[in-house]
Amino acid sequence: MSEDLKIIKGSKTENYLSIIPQIKALVEGEPDLIANLANVVAALREQFGWFWIGFYLVKNDELVLAPFQGPVACTRIKKGRGVCGTSWQQAQTIIVSDVGAFPGHIACSSLSKSEIVVPIIRDDEVIGVLDVDSSELNSFDGTDKKFLNEITDLIQFRVLK
C-alpha cells in the first residue's frame, strides 16, 4: 500500500470506517512490530487529531512506552496505576470523561482532559494497551470503544504474533 492516507472528515463512525481498512493495509505483510505500531498511531492521529496516542507494551510486570505521537510521555506504568495500569489490571476498556476526576490518574501532561485506554489481549492475557488522550473533556464514547477495540484486535492478530 502507498503510505499516503485518505483522510475523511465526517461523523466519528465514518472516520473510523475510512481509516480502519487503511490501517489493515499498512500492517498487512509487514512483520516488524515497531513499524506497525508506529504506523497505526500515526494514521489514527492524522485522522482524528488527538492530543496524544500511543501504545504501552507489557514487559517485566510493567507497561513500557512503545510507539506514540504527541508530547513526551510517562515511560513505565505499574499494574493498577493510572488509567493505563487499571485497564491492564481489569483487562477492560476504560473511558474517562474527565481525567482530573479519575483516582490515581497519572498526569504526563496537564493538557490531557479525557482518555480512553483499550487493552490488547492475546490468549486471555493483556500484552499491551492503546492509550488515547484528548485535550477536551468528554471526547470518547461507545463509538470509540467499539472501533478502537476492533483496531486492537487487528493488532493482536496481525502484529503481535
Question: What does the secondary structure layout of this molecule look like, with pairings?
Answer:
Elements: H1 12-27, H2 33-48, E1 52-59, E2 62-69, E3 76-78, H3 82-90, E4 94-96, E5 114-122, E6 125-134, H4 142-158
Helix pairs in contact: 1-2, 1-4
CA(first)-CA(last) distance: 21 Å
CATH architecture: 2-Layer Sandwich
| Tally of helical segments | 4
Number of strands: 6
**What is the percentage of strand-forming residues?**
25-35%
CATH-defined topology: Beta-Lactamase
Please tell me the overall pLDDT: 89
Walkthrough of the structure:
It is a single chain. The chain has 161 residues and is an alpha+beta fold. The protein has one domain (12-158): GAF domain (Beta-Lactamase). It has helices at residues 12-27, 33-48, 82-90, 142-158; strands at residues 52-59, 62-69, 76-78, 94-96, 114-122, 125-134. Strand 2 (62-69) and strand 3 (76-78) form a beta hairpin. Helix 1 packs antiparallel against helix 2 and helix 1 runs parallel beside helix 4. The radius of gyration is 15 Å and the shape is globular. The relative contact order is 0.16. The model has no long low-confidence stretch (mean pLDDT 89).
State the main characteristics.
161 residues; alpha+beta; six-stranded antiparallel β-sheet; 36% helix; globular
In short:
Helix 1 (12-27) runs parallel beside helix 4.
